Amino acid sequence: MSVQQGHHLPVAYQWDRTLANLLLSSRYSVQGLLYFLYLAQYPCHSSETIQLLDDALDLFHENKDIFIDLGIRDNFNLPKLHATRHYSYMIMMLGTTDNYNTEYTEQLHIDYAKDAYCATNHKDEFVQMMQWLKRKEKILHHDKYVNWRLAGDVESGPHHSHPPNMTFRWLQTILKHPTAKAISIDKLVEDYGATYFHEALACYITQLSHAEDPIPLHDRALDVLACDIHFPFRTLPVFHKIKWLSVDARGHGDATVTLDSVHARPQQRSGSGLLPRHSDTVLVNLGANTEAISAGIEAFHVGQVWAVFSLPSKSLPLLFLPTDQVPSHLAYIEWFSLFLLAPYQHHGLYKVSRSLLGGAKLASIVPLSKIVCSAHLLLNFSAVVP
């Protein structure tokens, strides 16, 4: 029996290694293609991001043969896949991909093919189409010349091109009026899912009131002082959505372009059914550096937003000193673990989990301005999916 096992062990070991290499190649190929798709959609590019775009595509091409080996595909002779090789050059020549799409060529097809064909007698149409296009262009050129002479033969000064401002910014916005004007703390706990709202708000008020103390409060002293906080209100105005709008180089926001949004709404009845509770995960900047671009990953913390609210203005003098800087909008957040020093090697993602203390979730109140953007988390399934 032992001899038979000795003969089969190398075969099984070789099969396991082959299967592992196949899985790794398929993972790298999909990873490279996904990276390419996300990078290609950047609204602002630099030489570094262009290089990352090429590296992601190279990662896909280096590992794509796994799909041929497994019999999933015979080849990769796809026009759209071939077009990806030209993305870097086209972005450098024409700008980011959000500046153009296939509608341009579709419109040219209408002008140069459909309209030209309709102008013919449908017999020997190619020669007639070319002649029609030549005449149309000559008329257009003559029309521009006439308009130029009518406007006055004024010599314009030399044109000096200036490179565009590549700064990309966005503006966090929230509704002027709350979605719900008066929500009790009990409803925030039961309907919105803000389980430890009372304790978190009491700690935040205590911490903000003692922000100027020469010696910062430690956790035990903070908890003791928070127990003495009594809220001079029964209800709070609550907001269900945060948005980030695009801001151009001159600082003007475009209300029609929403780049990102975060929802925190309770379970709602819609017709005969119920809409489930919606609470998004976000990236929160808890570091001293307020610039999200220059701050490292260690300055961010993943949290889940369960409620967005503001404190009643009539209650502020009863809770804070006149010198205290109280944010206009706050968010109740339950935390995930801190980021590791480096992402996982196989997929390049960071792994986080719920932050617990004695089985209870860690939660706190943070100013809305600390929320940088939404964060998409992927479930990490075990080897055996239940």
Characterization of this structure:
The chain is α+β, with helices and mostly antiparallel strands and 386 residues long. It has eleven helices and 15 strands. The strands form four sheets. Strands 2, 3, 9, 10, 11, 14 and 15 form a seven-stranded antiparallel beta sheet that branches. It has a four-stranded antiparallel beta sheet with strand order 1-4-5-8, with no helix packed on it. The chain is extended and about 90 Å long. The protein starts with a helix and ends in a 12-residue tail after the last strand.
Structural class: alpha+beta
- The total count of helices amounts to 11
Number of strands: 15
Average pLDDT figure: 83
The low-confidence parts are 1-15
Describe the main β-sheet briefly: 7 strands, antiparallel
Shape: extended
The separation of the N and C termini measures 35 Å
Encode the helix/strand succession as letters.
HHHHHHHEEHHHEEEEEEEEHEEEEE
Gyration radius over CA? 30 Å
DSSP strand (E) fraction? Answer: 15-25%
| Percent of residues in helices | 25-40%
Name its key features.
single chain; 386 residues; 11 helices; seven-stranded antiparallel β-sheet; alpha+beta; 38% helix; 15 strands; four-stranded antiparallel β-sheet
Outline the fold blueprint:
Elements: H1 2-40, H2 47-63, H3 65-69, H4 79-83, H5 87-94, H6 103-118, H7 125-150, E1 169-173, E2 180-184, H8 185-190, H9 197-209, H10 219-226, E3 235-239, E4 241-247, E5 253-265, E6 268-270, E7 273-275, E8 278-279, E9 281-285, E10 300-309, H11 316-319, E11 330-335, E12 356-357, E13 360-361, E14 363-367, E15 371-374
Antiparallel strand pairs: 1-4, 2-3, 3-10, 4-5, 5-8, 6-7, 9-10, 9-15, 10-11, 11-14, 12-13
Helix pairs in contact: 1-2, 6-7, 9-10
